[in-house]
Amino acid sequence: MAIGPAANRAPLPVTSEPTRGSKMAASAAMERLRYMLGLLLLLHSTDSFYVPGVAPINFHRNDPVEIKAVKLTSSRTQLPYEYYSLPFCQPSKITYKAENLGEVLRGDRIVNTPFQVSMNVEKKCEVLCNLPNKPVTLTVEQSKLMAERIREDYYVHLIADNLPVATRLEFYSNREEEEKKKEKDVQFEHGYRLGFMDGNKFYLHNHLSFILYYHREDVEESQEHTYRVVRFEVIPQSIKLEDLKADEKSMCTLPEATGSAPQEIDPTKENQLLFTYSVHWEESDIKWASRWDTYLTMSDVQIHWFSIINSVVVVFFLSGILSMIIIRTLRKDIANYNKEDDIEDTMEESGWKLVHGDVFRPPQYPMILSSLLGSGIQLFCMILIVIFVAMLGMLSPSSRGALMTTACFLFMFMGVFGGFFAGRLYRTLKGHRWKKGAFCTATLYPGVVFGICFVLNCFIWGKHSSGAVPFPTMVALLCMWFGISLPLVYLGYYFGFRKQPYDNPVRTNQIPRQIPEQRWYMNKFVGILMAGILPFGAMFIELFFIFSAIWENQFYYLFGFLFLVFIILVVSCSQISIVMVYFQLCAEDYRWWWRTFLVSGGSAFYVLIYAVFYFVNKLDIVEFIPSLLYFGYTALMVLSFWLLTGTIGFYAAYMFVRKIYAAVKID
What we know:
transmembrane; 4-stranded mixed beta sheet; alpha+beta; Transmembrane 9 superfamily member; transmembrane helix; membrane; 18 strands; 3 domains; elongated; 17 helices
């Protein structure tokens, strides 16, 4: 921050001698200026600025690097379990990390482990727990559980210095033969497989080869070198007890890869085995700030660009066509309707002007409509802010659970905007019971969400999964709902209801006009099918990546793309809604309030169909409870998406209807 020289500024005219008050104000201003300059110098003197909680940790050689366990996950069951739900080696004292709301809802239970890892200190092979002459004995029950988790394809997730463990996968891409010999494609799998199956036999990965990469920081010659952890890999191996040669100091020797047999887990009897690990350190050029790039690198960024460009071109092409058609048609309509000399002929014609006395007639159930639209506004504000903040990099995956925590709190605080818009619309629709309306807005959509989540949570509790929300967290969420969201919705509703209602440009007739018989294509369901195609087509590629992140334990971090897709979605929903309401009014059907809300959310129907397609083709879920979880959470997503797109379309259509009726002369 630079302060320009005083010479560049015009001198202030001196009018009178400074008073005592002005002297005090000037001295206070000087104090503030000194404070700001001091703060700027302090910030300037620091090396760099980091978001709280994600600043780098510097290690010296031999410093302990703690390995913690997060959870066990499987895309086949969708049920996370905590690390010590299986009979792994335990430290003398088990300590769980205090978790934020997002981590609890994700099923993370971060806990310490007995792995002893020191910065830049190699370990060839070490027994994790129990002496070599006293191996770990799994009971029949434990063996059954271990075999079941291996069959269900579970992955173990560990972290070192907040960096998740990854398994390196090397494979040849579809290149020419000569190029194949030169380079392999490397991808990383999150976590490591608990074990594997060969026929009907189960094998456990009981030896972990940790490969940790460090970046040596530049320091002055007199200072000791500092290191930062920049990558955490693991090579899991299954080695039979007899092949692990261990001494009394808990050191062991790994057998040659060709001659070793894997460690089988027989679920019908007790099994004896050793848990062992080795540690290898490598220096890396990767800076600490770029250490997450390995996990977040997507091999298919081009697909995103193609989909974005395709969506933008389609949306703008259709925008151009729709704008030309509607603007030309509307101009012609308005010009015809406004001809003073042909007013009688005009009244005999069919068209949207004929329903001017009924177009703003309040619909049935105005309280429910305004409540749903209020929740839609709440969702819109929350999603917009979350995506924008995440796009700026403030909700990175290194801050575990930050995205979900932020979304929950923002939804609560956005209640004031939801209440305001719902209250104003309710008054416009001639509503009088504002207290009941505010309560309906604050409880209708959140109540449905809470009810579905509670039922699903009961099933997850029954499976003893860490994905079950603990009772204290559920009470805390209820307190947030009734202690933060409800009062804010009431506050917003009160001010919205007191504000002047929306100014409708034409008066409503006493007697409702008869609606002529409608063509088949004006049917609600046909309208939903037609209106949903364009918004869904603009976003379905991104939907695939979002589903992969949710259901297949992938990281999603392309919020820049998501922000563009969200803007395209808003534009396309608005356009389609305007076109559909124009056709409806031209057919002399003035019951557009509810219909516009339903039809604009038509893309949610396609999201539901896509979710079923994804379940059948991409996921390997066969059991009842995982299927119930998938379709339960999908139903919530579809409901929320319908509210969001319906609200966007409704407000676009409402603005359009007010505009066109304000442009014609009504006697």
